[in-house]
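Justification of resources, computational component.

The compute hours requested in this renewal are based largely on the per-chain cost of generating structure records like the one below. Each record pairs the submitted sequence with a full structure-token output. That output is archived, and it is also reused by downstream analysis tasks.
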Amino acid sequence: MLIKYIIVDLHALLEKKLKYRNLDTFSFKTISANKKTVKKNWVVVDAKDQTLGRLASKVAILLRGKHKPNYSPHVDCGDYVIVINSKNIKLTGKKWEQKKYIRYTGYPGGQRSLNANEQFEKNPDSIIEKAIKGMLPKNKLGANLFRNLHVYQDAEHKHVAQNPILIDLSKF
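The structure output for this chain reads:
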């Protein structure tokens, strides 16, 4: 009787081995994300009383897609990010006076600079945009990722139809 059970168990084991042998090899390959397989979401981030650098680094992660399990470094797999209340951003220390935004006109001696206060008065969105752009790759992929960022001074934005999800960055 013991022999009968052993034979039945061996028969069941052989059937399982044969079943695994017939699996196609595609199921064991690592799948890399591409343009067609990436699912992009719309996300809203509130910049009210957020520190500039900390906000920018978290938004750059969202734009890049590093928070997703199917992240691939060569593909735009990040989300569309809407930053609202950019006029309520915080800078720590003396950065409002000491931080410089430098540009070049293209002519000899044409280097111009503004401090953070002057840049903020000119365009509050540009401070956040420049901080985030500096944290993205410096190539074509980085340029494409930057196009997924939308910054607004107030709580109103024009992307309501996309049903964006509000994300609390303190829990991110």
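The first strand starts at residue 42 and ends at 46. The chain is about 35% helix and 15% strand.
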